Amino acid sequence: MTKPATIRDVAAAAGVSIAVVSRVLNDGSGPVSAGARQRVLQAMQDLSYRPRVAARELKSGPTSTIGLLLADVTNPFFARLADSVVREARSRGVQVVLMTTQEDPRLEEEALATLASRRVSGVIATPTATNAGAWQHLGDLQTRVVFVDRYLDSVPLADVVSIDNERSAREATEHLLELGHRRIGFVSGPLSTTTGRSRTDGHLATLAAHGIEPESELLRNIPFRGDQGADAMGSLLERDDPPTAIILANTAQAVSGLRRLRQAGVKVPSELSVVVFDDNPWTELFAPALTIMRQPTELLAAHSVDLALSQQPDATAGRTLMVEAEFVVRSSTAAPTAARVPSN
Amino acid sequence: MTKPATIRDVAAAAGVSIAVVSRVLNDGSGPVSAGARQRVLQAMQDLSYRPRVAARELKSGPTSTIGLLLADVTNPFFARLADSVVREARSRGVQVVLMTTQEDPRLEEEALATLASRRVSGVIATPTATNAGAWQHLGDLQTRVVFVDRYLDSVPLADVVSIDNERSAREATEHLLELGHRRIGFVSGPLSTTTGRSRTDGHLATLAAHGIEPESELLRNIPFRGDQGADAMGSLLERDDPPTAIILANTAQAVSGLRRLRQAGVKVPSELSVVVFDDNPWTELFAPALTIMRQPTELLAAHSVDLALSQQPDATAGRTLMVEAEFVVRSSTAAPTAARVPSN
DNA sequence: TTGTAAGCGTTATCAC
DNA sequence: GTGATAACGCTTACAA
C-alpha cells in the first residue's frame, strides 16, 4: 500500500545518516556503533525495508547473478543440471536467470543480448549456434562464458565443462563389442554439436581399433529435441542387415526410439541390445532396465558455477574441465543371439 | 577489453546529446530527426552498446522480470511448467528468474526475500510453507503473487491457477469404481498442501457417494520429493487386505512406487490397477502404458504469466483460474481379477 | 564514529 | 528537434 521504504527512510527513522545505514547493510564496510546498528536494524524491521538490487548494481558494476542458457529444460538431463546449478549458485548467494533456446539460433541470439544488458557476471550455456559475435561481446563485457556439456571451437574465450564424450562413446562401443556385437546402430545428436561429433568419433575409432569396417548407414545424426528417434530406429530396423545393438544419445531419442521398438515388437536385449546416453529414474523401470551412461550433473554444475563466478585476468582463452561419466551396465545389453547373427 | 560503452559514449560518437540517444532507445518517447537517429544507431553498432538494465530499473521502478519459485525443477511436471513459463514470458519480452525451494520452508523464505529486493513485477510460485509475512511483504511491494498448482489459503492476496484437483481425484476414483474396484490405495502429497488435501477430499467424497466405507489405512500422505513412494506401496501391498487399485500423486512417487511393485512381482493391471497424477513421455513406455491424469502445462503457464504481469488495482484479493485436466485411460487399469477379490 | 556529497547509467521534464 | 539537468536508491571516498 504505502510505497517501499528507501535507505533514507530508514536513516530518518533511526536518527542517523544514510551512510550509517549503508554500513550496517554491507556489514564490514565501515565502523558503526553498537547503538546505531541496533536502531538501524530496528528501523529496517519496522519499515520492512529491503535494499533495491538495481540501485546497488548500478553502482557496483557486475551483479551476483549468472545466466543459465539451456537448450531445453524439458530434457531431464538439462533439468537436473538446472536444479544443481540453481542450488550451487544459491549456496554462494548468487542468483540464476534461466533462459531456454529450444535449439533455435535466433532465440539464442536474443537471449545473449538480454544477458549482455543484464551485465550478469557469468553465463553458463549449452550453445546451439555459432553466435560468435554475441559470445565475443559478452566476453568484452567482462562476463565469464562457460559452456557446459557442449561447446564451440569458434569461441575460444569460453571455459568448457563436460564429460569426455569421445571416451564415453568408446566405452559404450567397447562394451557392445565385447558382448560380440558387430553391427551397432549409433543415434547421435547433430554433428554440428561437439557432443554429436565427439561421440561419433569415439564410436568410429573404437570400431576401427577392433578391425571393424564402420558402416555409415548405421549412423544417424538427428536433433536432440523431438521425436526423430522413432524414425531413426525404424529405418535401422528395416535394413536387410539390421544392427544387433544400438546406442542412443539422449532421453528424448531414447523415449521415441524405444516406443518404436515396442511397436515393432522387438525384444530387448535378445533381439537388440540398447545403450542410452543419459540416466533417469524411470530408466530402471523400463523393462528391461537400461544400460546407461550417467553424467555427474552435480559435478558439472559445481564446476560451471565455479568458473562462471571466477575472475580471470587473461580472458582470451578459456579453461577446459573434464569430469568422468559413469557407465552403468544393466539388463538391456547382452550377447547377440544366434538368430540375429549375420548369415554371411 | 575496453570498458562497456555508456549512453554518453554513444552520444559523443554520434555528435548528439544523451537525451537524443535515450529517445531512439525508447522509440516513441520523443521526436528525433531521421539523420540523428541514423547516426545514433550507427554509433551504437560501432560501440556495440547495450543499455544497462540496472540503470533503467533504478529509474522506472518495477522491471520486466518475473520470479519463478518452484519446489523442484527435477520434477518433470515442474520442468515442463518452467519451460512453458519461460517461453510464454519471453514472447512478452519478460525475463524469468528461476529459484527452487526443494520443499524447504527456509529456502523458500530466503528466495522470497531475494525476489523482494529484486522488485520483480510478479512471482509465480508453488508455495511450500505458510511464509505469510513474506508473501504479504511481496504484495506490499506491488508484486503480483501467483500461486500455480498449489496455493495457500492464508495468503488471500495471491492469484491462483490450477486444475480442479478435487474433481480430478473424483474422476480417477470413479474410473476405478466403475471397473469394480472397492479397495483403492491413495498415495497423495502432504495434507499441508492444497493439492494433497483437495485430491484426498475428492477421493473420499467419491467413495462416500458410492456407499463405500473409506478406510483411512488405504491413504498415504507422503512428500512429493524423494523415494517414499516405495514404502507407501510396500506397506499397502503387505496388508491382509491389499488394495486392488492405487492412485499415485506424482512422478517421483510413481517411479519409486512402481519400482517396488516390480520388485514384489505384482502384475499391473491384473493384480493391481494403477493411476498416476502426472503425464510424462516415458509413461507410455512403461509396461503396461499408464493411465494418467494430464495437466495442461502450457495453459497453466500462460495464465500464470498473464496474471503475474497484470496490474491489479485492488490487490487485496486474488483471482482464481481453474483449467481442465485430461484423464487418459491406458492399460494400467482394469477390472480386479477374482483372485484378488476380497474373500469376505 | 558519523555525515556530506559525488557519482553509477538511465529516463523524463523542461527550456531553448 | 534538441540539450541541460534533476531525479532514481545506493555505495564510498573524504571530511568532520
Any overview of this molecule?
2 copies of one chain form a homodimer. With 344 residues, the first copy, chain A, is α/β, with parallel strands linked by helices. Among the domains of chain A are: 57 residues, lambda repressor-like DNA-binding domains (434 Repressor (Amino-terminal Domain)), CATH 1.10.260; 131 residues, Rossmann fold, CATH 3.40.50.2300. Chain A contains 12 helices and 12 strands. In chain A, the strands form 2 sheets. Chain A has a 6-stranded parallel β-sheet, with helices on both faces. Chain A has a 6-stranded mixed β-sheet with strand order 7-6-8-9-10-12, with helices on both faces. In chain A, strand 8, helix 11 and strand 9 form a beta-alpha-beta unit. In chain A, helix 6 runs parallel beside helix 7. The termini of chain A are far apart. The C terminus of chain A is likely disordered. At the A-B interface, helix 4, helix 5, strand 2, helix 6 and helix 11 of A face helix 4, helix 5, strand 2, helix 6 and helix 11 of B. Chain A binds a DNA duplex (16 and 16 nucleotides) through helix 2 and helix 4.
Summarize the structure.
The structure is a homodimer of 344-residue chains. Chain A has 344 residues and is α/β, with parallel strands linked by helices. Chain A contains 12 helices and 12 strands.
Q: Which key terms come to mind for this protein?
A:
Rossmann fold; 17% strand; 6-stranded parallel β-sheet; 12 strands; 6-stranded mixed β-sheet; 434 Repressor (Amino-terminal Domain); 344 residues; disordered C terminus; DNA-binding; alpha/beta; homodimer
